[in-house]
Each structure stands twice: as C-alpha cells, then as structure tokens.
C-alpha cells in the first residue's frame, strides 16, 4: 500500500492520467505550457516543488517553431528540460503512437527522470486503427498508457475537446468514448465565462478519483506576450491566473444547457440582488446576502449565477477577512484576488501574475533554445532494434 503523490497538489496525481477538456480557443494548450514551465522550474506546488524535472511534450497539431516553442518560452519553461519526441523506425521517423510505443516511452521516462508527459491533444496519439468512439477499442490504447504512468510515476496530462452537445457535466462532453474520462484518474475542465466581462476562463476539478473533488475553481486570463527572435518579434498567448472563482465550469455549462425558465430565474435573482445591495449602500457581506436570498426562495447556485449577471464583484475585506459583494458601477467584473503561497493555499491557487519571463526579459533577444530532441528506439518484428 502506498500514499497518493501529487504532481500538482490535490489536482494532478503522479503516476496517473489526467485529462483537461474544453472547447477550442480557451487556452487549453496554454495551460499545458504553463504546467510544463512550472515542472521544469520546480515551482508547481506538489511532489516536485523545489526540484526542476524534465517534461516530454508530445504535440501534433501545432508547429514547434511558430507555436509550441514560443508558448513554452513565454510561460517561463526551461527549454533545456523540455523534450519533443520522435520514434525511429526503419529508415525514418514517426510520431509517438499509442499503445505501440508505451514500452519504449517508459524507458526514456526512467532514463531522463521525466515528471510530466504532456499530450497535445491526447486523441492525436491514439493509433489510427483504433475507433476512439468505442469504449473497448479505446481502452486498448489508454490502459497500457495508464500502466506505464503507474510504473514510472510520471504524470500523463492530455488535452481533449468538448463535443457540440450541451450538458452541465463536463465528463459527458468529452469527444470520443467515455473511456477517456473513465481511465483518467482526474479531469480538470475549462470553460470561458462569457458573463464575467473580462474574457476570463474558469478551471474546475470535474473528476478526482484519488483525492478531493471540492477544490476551489480557478480563474485565468490569456495575455499577449512578445518574444524577440532572429527574424523579428513573435506573439503568443500566456496564461495568467487571477485567483479563485466562485463560479465553476459546471455552473457555466449549466447556463448553456439550461432552458428559458432557468435564465428567467437567474435574471429575476439578479434584479433582487441589485435591489438588496442598493438598499444597503451598494454592498453587503456575502453571508448576509445568502441568508436573505434563501429566505426569498433563491437557491445558492442561482445566486452565484445572478451575481455575475448583475455585474456584482466579490472582494475580501476587514479582519478577519470576509467576503463582501459590491455593485460594480463600471459594469466590469473584477476577479477575486489571488491567494499567494503565504496564505496556506499553495496547493490550490497559483500565485497571481505572469509565470513566464518579465517584460524586460521578453524585450531582449530571446535566442531561445529549441526543445531537446528525444528519439525512441522501437524493436522491429524480428526482435532487433530499429535504426
């Protein structure tokens, strides 16, 4: 018997598969770049905090030169500790393919001491002959990957897309077979909060077989970063956490999936909230509001949605600190202040602000090194090793 070790405290277990699903264009790949940067710098709260470790980054959809390398650099990754992976066979090279290359991958993970295998996206690594919409077929690729992760202690984090259906359950929206979420020990869902007013997205723990599920949701924005290259400036996105969110991905997805009655209930609650705050000078303690809302027949979930709809901001003030809701006269939502390491929430909320190089560093010629090449040698049918 062994305890569970966490690559990211309480969120990403070491030696297991974690899936990060969401719709396109909301920063899933930037999340993976952020994670990779934290691992290579030893700054991610968890098992490897204080000890930088290598990362293998397996990507098929984006260019290394134009997209992946610049994103990793802007996120602050030590590119000398990021490995891209090619598989040598016969006289050429192939992309990493599951389950074919699990054994060779395990050898390299052990040899290099890799802490994270980043799959961008996970679906693209599945062998072409496997039907990813059939549970039994998909398990033939994912279960060997899960065993490899368990044997090496490496965390496997793969991106996944949401399908076009509507549901408040992120697990039901993952494209492909249910095996993606079933084999994964943890799922961290991402959704854009259109009602926040600042373009921010929310990250929530949708599944956590090995730990707590009642973790606070996190909010982040995507900022533009400029990187100097020999051919001129390159521009990429960079993930910046702004703190905890009192709205979860389930709340956001539920609004999309809800019917007209749900929206009407939320709008009525928003009007009640504005009136309640206006009668008290524009602000009131969150606990008092919750009690009054309950007495008025407004459910807790509806109240949270109403706060965003009414452009009411949540802040902490006083001593001891308590949550206060305030009417935002500028109608621009303000994110909840981030909680830094000194607050004891190191395992939950990353420190606020950019995690990559400072603006001054980004302004200098980057000459960023290319991610280190990694080649897996696969045995051929005769038992010998391919060149």
From TrEMBL:
It comes from the Bacteria. Pfam families: AAA_25. Gene3D superfamilies: P-loop containing nucleotide triphosphate hydrolases (3.40.50.300). This is AAA family ATPase. The lineage of its organism: Bacteria, Bacillati, Actinomycetota, Actinomycetes, Micromonosporales. InterPro entries: P-loop_NTPase. Residues 332-387 are annotated as: Disordered.
């Amino acid at each position: 018997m062994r305890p569970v070790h966490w690559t990211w405290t309480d969120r990403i277990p070491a030696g297991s598969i974690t899936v990060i699903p969401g719709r396109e264009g909301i920063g899933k790949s930037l999340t993976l770049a952020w994670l990779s940067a934290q691992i290579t710098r030893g700054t991610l709260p968890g098992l490897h905090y204080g000890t930088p470790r290598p990362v293998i980054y397996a990507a098929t959809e984006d260019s290394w030169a134009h997209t992946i390398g610049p994103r990793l650099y802007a996120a602050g990754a030590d590119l000398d500790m990021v490995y891209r992976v090619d598989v040598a066979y016969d006289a050429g090279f192939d992309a990493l393919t599951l389950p074919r290359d699990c054994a060779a991958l395990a050898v390299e993970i052990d040899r290099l001491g890799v802490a994270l295998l980043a799959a961008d996206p996970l679906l693209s690594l599945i062998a072409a002959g496997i039907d990813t919409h059939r549970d039994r077929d998909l398990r033939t690729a994912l279960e060997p990957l899960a065993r490899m992760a368990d044997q090496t202690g490496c965390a496997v984090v793969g991106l996944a897309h949401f399908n076009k259906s509507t549901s408040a359950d992120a697990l039901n929206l993952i494209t492909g077979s249910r095996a993606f979420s079933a084999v994964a020990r943890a799922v961290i869902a991402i959704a854009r909060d259109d009602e926040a007013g600042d373009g921010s997205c929310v990250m929530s723990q949708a599944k956590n077989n090995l730990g707590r599920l009642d973790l606070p949701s996190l909010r982040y924005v995507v900022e533009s970063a400029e990187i100097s290259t020999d051919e001129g400036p390159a521009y990429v996105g960079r993930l910046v956490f702004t703190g905890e969110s009192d709205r979860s991905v389930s709340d956001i997805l539920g609004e999309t999936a809800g019917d007209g009655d749900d929206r009407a209930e939320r709008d009525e609650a928003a009007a009640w909230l504005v009136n309640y705050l206006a009668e008290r000078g524009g602000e009131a303690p969150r606990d008092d509001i919750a009690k009054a809302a309950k007495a008025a027949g407004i459910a807790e979930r509806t109240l949270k949605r109403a706060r965003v709809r009414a452009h009411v901001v949540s802040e902490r003030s006083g001593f001891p600190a308590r949550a206060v809701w305030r009417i935002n006269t500028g109608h621009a939502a303000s994110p909840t202040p981030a909680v830094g390491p000194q607050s004891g929430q190191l395992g939950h909320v990353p420190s606020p602000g950019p995690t990559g190089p400072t603006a001054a560093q980004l302004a200098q010629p980057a000459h960023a090194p290319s991610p280190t090449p990694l080649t897996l040698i696969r045995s051929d049918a005769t038992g010998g090793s391919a060149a």
